[in-house]
Amino acid sequence: AEKGGYKTYVMEVKGSRVYSKLKYESGVHRVQRVPQTETQGRVHTSTATVAIMPE
């Protein structure tokens, strides 16, 4: 990551039926935003790959 972002982020979620609630979130997610430093209002796009794995 260039400025304050994450290149890799790993987390563990525990609880009742967590896998069944999150299993369909696997895949590539796209985030679009207009940074405060963008003077021409252009949209910047980032992607994140999400993997949901049962214990």
Task: Characterize the structure shown.
The chain is mainly beta. It contains 1 helix and 2 strands. The chain has one domain (1-47). It has one helix at residues 18-22, and strands at residues 27-33, 44-50. The longest helix has 5 residues, at 18-22. The two termini are 28 Å apart.
The radius of gyration over CA amounts to: 15 Å
Strand-and-helix sequence, N→C? HEE
Structural class assignment = mainly beta
Low-confidence stretches: none
Number of helices: 1
Termini separation: 28 Å
Side by side, the strands of the main sheet go: 1-2
Report the sheet-strand fraction. 25-35%
**Main beta sheet, described?**
2 strands, antiparallel
Number of domains: 1
Shape estimate: elongated
- Helical percent range? under 10%
- Overall pLDDT: 90
Number of strands: 2
Which descriptors would you attach to this protein?
two-stranded antiparallel ribbon, elongated, 55 residues, 9% helix, mainly beta
How would you briefly describe this protein structure?
By secondary structure, this protein is mostly beta strands. Helices cover 9% and strands 25% of the residues.
Topology of this protein?
Layout: H1 18-22, E1 27-33, E2 44-50
